[in-house]
Write a structure and sequence with these properties.
36% of the residues lie in helices and 17% in strands. The protein is an alpha/beta fold. The chain has two domains: 167 residues, 3-Layer(aba) Sandwich (Rossmann fold), CATH 3.40.50; 194 residues, Rossmann fold (3-Layer(aba) Sandwich), CATH 3.40.50.1260. A six-stranded parallel sheet has the order 5-6-4-1-7-8. Strand 2 and strand 3 form a beta hairpin. The protein is elongated and about 70 Å long. The structure holds adenosine-5'-diphosphate (ADP) and magnesium ion. Adenosine-5'-diphosphate binds next to helix 9, strand 14 and helix 13. Magnesium ion (MG) binds next to helix 13.
Length: 392
């Protein structure tokens, strides 16, 4: 069901409660990376231009339902204030008399930031009374926190029960770009899946297999597939309990006529360290005691060639332990190839970090801001934070 977007609502001079994703990393109490704050600016600026009284709310870190002075939103308010060039009023609560008074006293164009939502256990419990109190601060609710849209919490879903609601510009962009790729891709359409934890990605693989023309597998994932096919992967990270699933996915690909590519060579080492002795070996010759930590050069070349034939590509999961430069070459080669594709979509926290590290993120059509949320979207799941919003 299509949902209302920000421009469908008459927000002028109203009080608008916006769920944003300001879950930023902190270092010594300061915001270490402001990408997520910047990602919310289009929505916030639009509201300011429309004389809206803006009430922002987010979670940060995992305070587990208790107040934690280290996870207060004050440093976020400072960064936001600097980015907007205007005052951002920050309070130490989300609901109750202080919040009600602060919300009521806002003038047109004022911005209020509530305290970390996860100081309240009611937030993740999606407590209806907490949601009703949040809703009581405003006339309209906007969800622009794509990163938590896969969670049914009070601020992401519960609050929509009580107010007219819409998605903000960030969620709208995420959903339209990824939705188009899944529903009506310009072909050939390729998926590249790497990283670890097949368990988390089986759904993504299965859903994408229905849609893509070819699929490339790398990273730790590839080890499980290779092992399932009978290769001895030495000391590599293999998910033994997922070997059956891997075989099923290989079969599904065959049935659907989708080419599923696996590495033909890997970079193996005894430990994850820049000084470890490394060997490039074919996948049928991984030495015992060594781990496959990157796709090999022959695989990287083959994958780059396949990617260059695609007109749409979705990538989740690095090709190796890219955090160490010596195991980052496969990921680099794939990132450069992906950057050349007409429509390129990168989802997943580590994958986004990888394209950033290689320096090609500005040549990617869309780097999703949501880790888990983008995975669930690519799985074809309905995200509760979007489902809860008012239908068009
Ligand atoms: P994303 O966050 O993009 O969804 P994942 O979290 O699934 O990606 O995977 C990223 C992690 O996978 C990285 O920390 C990387 O070091 C690790 N990884 C990739 N390839 C291997 C491998 N061959 N062996 C062990 N770990 C790997
Ligand atoms: Mg990750």
């Amino acid at each position: 069901m299509p949902k209302l977007t920000l421009k469908d609502l008459d927000v002028k001079s109203k009080r608008v409660l916006v769920r944003v994703d300001f879950n930023v990393p902190l270092e010594n109490g300061a915001v270490a990376n402001d990408i997520r704050i910047r990602a919310a600016l289009p929505t916030i600026n639009y509201l300011i231009e429309n004389q809206v009284r803006v009430i922002l709310m987010s979670h940060m870190g995992r305070p587990k339902g208790k107040r934690d002075p280290k996870l207060q939103m004050d440093s976020v308010a400072e960064v936001l204030s600097r980015l907007l060039g205007r005052e951002v009023k920050k309070i130490d609560s989300c609901v109750g008399p202080e919040a009600e008074k602060a919300a009521a006293s806002l003038s047109e164009g004022d911005i209020l930031l509530l305290e970390n939502l996860r100081f309240y256990p009611e937030e993740t419990a999606n407590d209806p009374e907490f949601a009703r109190q949040l809703a009581g601060l405003a006339d309209i609710y906007v969800n622009d926190a794509f990163g938590t849209a896969h969670r049914a919490h009070a601020s992401t879903a519960g609050v929509a029960e009580y107010l007219p609601s819409a998605m903000g510009f960030l969620i709208e962009k995420e959903v339209s770009i990824m939705g188009k790729a899944l529903e009506d891709p310009v072909r050939p359409f390729a998926a590249i899946i790497g990283g670890v934890k097949i368990a988390d990605k089986i759904g993504v693989l299965t859903n994408l297999l229905e849609k893509v023309d070819f699929i490339l597998i790398g990273g730790g994932m590839a080890n499980t597939f290779l092992k399932a096919k009978g290769f001895d992967m030495g000391a590599s990270v293999v998910e033994e309990e997922k070997l059956e699933d891997a075989l099923e996915i290989i079969k599904l690909a065959q049935d659907r006529g989708v080419e599923l590519a696996l590495p033909v060579d890997v970079v193996a080492a005894g430990e994850i360290s820049p000084d470890a002795e490394r060997k490039v070996v074919p996948v049928d010759a991984v030495p015992s005691g060594m781990m496959a930590l990157d796709i090999g050069p022959e695989t990287a070349e083959k994958y780059a060639g396949m990617i260059s034939r695609a007109r749409t590509v979705v990538w989740n999961g690095p090709m190796g332990v890219f955090e160490e430069d010596v195991f980052a070459k496969g990921t680099e080669a794939v990132a450069r190839a992906v950057a050349e594709v007409e429509t390129s979509i990168v989802g997943g926290g580590d994958s986004a970090a990888a394209v950033e590290k290689v320096g090609v993120s500005d040549r990617i059509t869309h780097v999703s801001t949501g880790g888990g949320a983008s995975l669930e979207f690519l799985e074809g799941k309905v995200l509760p934070g979007i489902a809860a919003l008012t239908d068009k």
